């Protein structure tokens, strides 16, 4: 058994005060830099002093408060360090046979518990700063609003072992998950050379491919393909249009636009680097606890997604990816929007891959569905075959509303999973396990009523992935509505994981 799961109270990693307070220190540095930015630009460009009315730096210099301002900033930094040090001493956790408990707070004390039978997953996040200290943040995902527990921070190897232990306890697999781990006292301190070597190995190791904890990834996302997928995006078209417009205006003599637009362009380019850094070294593998996904170049994350919590799977192909045969896969799972306070909870499982990659990933996400049938639907979506009637299509009169894409709209069943396809410019194929359906809706406006058509929407716990049929015959739509409603209720009542 992992020593951290022995039922006793433990403190976080000793570097936790620095790791948590570092973000505040960076924010203070950003505020100071923002106030000094114009002066730095003027100094580099050798521009004479300008009148900056209301500038706090000018007020401090004019009144002779420079020393006091520096002392105030220094005092604030010391208070932040002391506060996070005290917070670290007051924060403890323990793993028992029934729950994971976390005690925290200095002025307002909190004692939170995550019952093992309510744990949906355990995720591991390593920021760049934390990796320098060999630390990681453990996120215990629990159903409910703001119910997740965050253990910030633990030793990187200890966090990986503790995640494995918690998942084993939650699934009543303690013996299988504990195999291979030594019991007893905590390890002895490592020599400095070993510590430096282990940090270097951690930086070059993929996010979720530690040889002791995870199997090899079933898909390899090549860096060149990832860069190409980022460049071939609608955002690039907007960026090119802005650059062309800027060049035209500069040729006309409007040089002031360089000062106004270039910082925004720099932010756009950094957006590419951030997204590449987040999606680089993507790994996907199956395990007894679910689908393991790792990603990140500088800051890394490793998540375990129980297949029972996946409410929808979406396979997409933008128009610019079509010549290369690239696809992406996203999923919708319960709890993600609530836990992060965001409106979007679709997660990227495959950032970019070939049709063969899609065929390897889909069976991991939908293990209860027939693999051959899944691949047949993906192939039909990719080729849009008109001869093989894999999908049920709307009647020809639907061309009045969708003249180019009505043949591309359809639905099919793969066991207890509903598949919906749509799109001619942006191809989508949605898979929805019927046991996860929250509700089904049918809508019909005046134009659809005249054409004998209806629209059907399948509601899930998501706002980005919206499985729906924009058009379908009225009779077929009502029959599909009744069938989905009955099947969803029946399957949800039988599903032990819902």
From TrEMBL:
Residues 88-166, 280-338, 406-462 form the YdbS-like PH domain. The keyword Membrane applies. InterPro entries: UCP026631, YdbS-like_PH. Signal peptide: none annotated. The chain crosses the membrane at residues 18-36, 65-84, 226-248, 254-272. It comes from the Bacteria. Pfam families: bPH_2. Keywords: Membrane, Transmembrane, Transmembrane helix. This is YdbS-like PH domain-containing protein.
């Amino acid at each position: 058994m992992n020593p951290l799961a022995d039922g006793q109270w433990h403190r976080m990693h000793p570097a936790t005060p620095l790791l948590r307070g570092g973000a505040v220190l960076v924010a203070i540095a950003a505020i100071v830099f923002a106030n000094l930015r114009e002066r730095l630009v003027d100094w580099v460009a050798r521009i004479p002093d300008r009148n900056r009315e209301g500038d706090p730096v000018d007020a401090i210099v004019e009144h002779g408060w420079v020393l006091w301002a520096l002392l105030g900033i220094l005092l604030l930094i010391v208070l932040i360090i002391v506060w996070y040090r005290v917070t670290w001493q007051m924060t403890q956790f323990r793993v028992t046979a029934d729950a994971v408990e976390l005690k925290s707070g200095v002025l307002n004390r909190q004692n939170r518990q995550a019952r093992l039978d309510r744990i949906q997953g355990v995720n591991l996040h390593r920021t760049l700063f934390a990796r320098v200290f060999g630390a990681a943040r453990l996120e215990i995902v629990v159903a409910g609003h703001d119910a997740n527990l965050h253990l910030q921070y633990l030793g990187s190897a200890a966090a990986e072992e503790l995640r494995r232990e918690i998942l084993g306890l939650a699934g009543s697999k303690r013996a299988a998950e504990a195999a291979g781990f030594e019991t007893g006292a905590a390890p002895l301190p490592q020599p400095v050379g070993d510590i430096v070597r282990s940090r270097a190995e951690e930086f070059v190791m993929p996010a979720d491919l530690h040889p002791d904890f995870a199997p090899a990834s079933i898909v390899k996302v090549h860096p060149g393909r990832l860069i190409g997928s980022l460049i071939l995006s609608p955002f690039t078209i907007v960026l090119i249009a802005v650059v062309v417009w800027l060049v035209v205006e500069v040729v006309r003599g409007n040089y002031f636009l360089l000062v106004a637009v270039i910082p925004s362009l720099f932010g756009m380019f950094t957006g590419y680097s951030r997204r590449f850094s987040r999606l680089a070294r993507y790994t996907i593998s199956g395990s007894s606890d679910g689908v393991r996904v790792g990603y990140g170049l500088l800051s890394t994350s490793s998540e375990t997604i129980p297949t029972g919590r996946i409410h929808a799977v979406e396979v997409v192909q933008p128009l610019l990816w079509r010549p290369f045969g690239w696809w992406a896969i996203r999923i919708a799972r319960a709890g993600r929007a609530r836990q992060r306070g965001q409106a979007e909870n679709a997660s990227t499982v495959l950032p970019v891959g070939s049709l063969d990659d899609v065929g390897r990933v889909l069976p991991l996400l939908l293990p209860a569905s027939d693999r051959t049938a899944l691949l047949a639907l993906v192939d039909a979506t990719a080729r849009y075959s008109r001869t093989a009637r894999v999908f049920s299509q709307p009647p020809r009169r639907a061309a009045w509303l969708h003249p180019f894409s009505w043949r591309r709209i359809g639905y099919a069943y793969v066991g207890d999973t509903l598949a919906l396809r749509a799109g001619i410019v942006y191809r989508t194929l949605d898979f929805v396990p019927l046991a996860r359906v929250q509700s089904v809706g049918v809508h019909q406006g005046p134009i659809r009523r005249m054409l004998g058509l209806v629209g059907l929407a399948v509601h899930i716990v998501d706002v980005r992935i919206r499985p729906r049929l924009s058009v379908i015959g009225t009779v077929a739509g009502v029959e599909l509505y009744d069938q989905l409603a009955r099947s969803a209720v029946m399957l949800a009542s039988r599903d032990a994981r819902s």
